[in-house]
Amino acid sequence: MKNILFFVITASLVFSMSFAVPSSGGKDCKYAGVKTCKACHKSKKRGDQYSVWASSKHAKAFTTLQTAEADKIAKKRGSDKPAAETKECLSCHVTGYNVDGAEFGKKFKKEDGVTCEACHGPGSAYKKLHNKKDKKDQAKEACFTVPSISDGSAKNLCVKCHNKNSPSYKGFDLNKFWSKIKHPMPK
After folding, report:
1. Is the pLDDT of residue 14 over 70?
2. Euclidean distance between CA atoms 142 and 59, whole angstroms
3. I need a surface site. Which of 53, 91, 178, 186 has the fewest CB within 10 A?
4. Are 63 and 94 in contact (CB under 8 A)?
């Protein structure tokens, strides 16, 4: 009798939890990698967002950790490893590094630095939706976000790394830096 009662309670909990857990629309939200984004976002018709990113410092974020200067900073901050292997450095120089339980697809490379998915979220589920006009409203369920200056979400995102804890921090003017990385979709 105890086993049956245990089974019924366990089954009820599992069943009810499937409705209580926030849904991602049944989507598998993994970090897909910048090459996945590049496939569509390299054309002028799409606003050439890939080129904006590729010419930015974000694209070189991991590379900067592979310098003698970065290693010197990491050592000064107490690391016995090179900067490119130091968690505190990687958390801002590699997309998804600081995300608990982050999953990465086959095309994802940490060497790509701070990619599209650092700001817009993991793209594996979204890539199947975003070209379909009637599916754009499901983007949020597919882990996609669009940071905005007007609602403060851009600043909240950026200052996670661009802050006084960074050894290379020289102040952060969101409007100035936003103008260098903005990449709107053409209408």
Report:
1. no
2. 24
3. 186
4. no
